[in-house]
Amino acid sequence: RRSDETGQQRRSHGHPLFRLPSPRKNNPSSFLTCSMIPPALRRQYIYRARHSFVPHQNHKQPTNQLQSRSRNERSRSIFLFEFPERSSGLMATAGKVIKCKAAVAWEAGKPLSIEEVEVAPPQAMEVRVKILYTALCHTDVYFWEAKGQTPVFPRILGHEAGGIVESVGEGVTELVPGDHVLPVFTGECKDCAHCKSEESNLCDLLRINVDRGVMIGDGQSRFTINGKPIFHFVGTSTFSEYTVIHVGCLAKINPEAPLDKVCVLSCGISTGLGATLNVA
Question: CA 157 → CA 143, 146, 196, distances in Å?
Fold first, then answer.
């Protein structure tokens, strides 16, 4: 996150080359795509709000070729940033085991315990997410109490949350590190009969399964404590600073949406509003 010359804070989202609307509001032509920027200039310049290019600190090339652009061309602003804090933060952990804090339910009805857990890298079609906000849903309480259900413990509960993609596994093309996402406990593979139907979203592969405490791909948990597996919950397990989720159980959202508020979209609002509009 950096501040432009007007004092307004700007963010990058998912890629060091990103675009933001120019000061000319409501002007569709005021966007530049990355493909419109010469490759030699990518990742090298910061385009400030007053339409003057500033070279990246590690780049020595003069800026006269950019300053010679017409005022009309320069008014279509694009912000090009390199973020060392991102590459040394989220991206630097890609492919590695992450140690973080999580609230672990060791037994039914027993208070959750804050533990240091190891979170393995995502495998094929999986995404590792840094959870920034998580809410408490009564469903979490219901399965923590484990009254009338198959008890699956130790377990990391939580499913109503918002976070940022830290890394992606093989085959994931819909998301990139930095994307803002909401977990969805009833996902979509997009290939089965239910996903292709307009009548149902009960995906054959990713429909909610409260008894499964492992990942679909290999039947293993991505959480461990001192080598002992800790089970997942409905494919999300958001009571952890980092979690691994199947890509079909993540919804990419507008990065401008405040995660501390829209996190309830992943369960509370979607289920309640869906029942009202689609059933009642």
Answer: 8, 12, 30
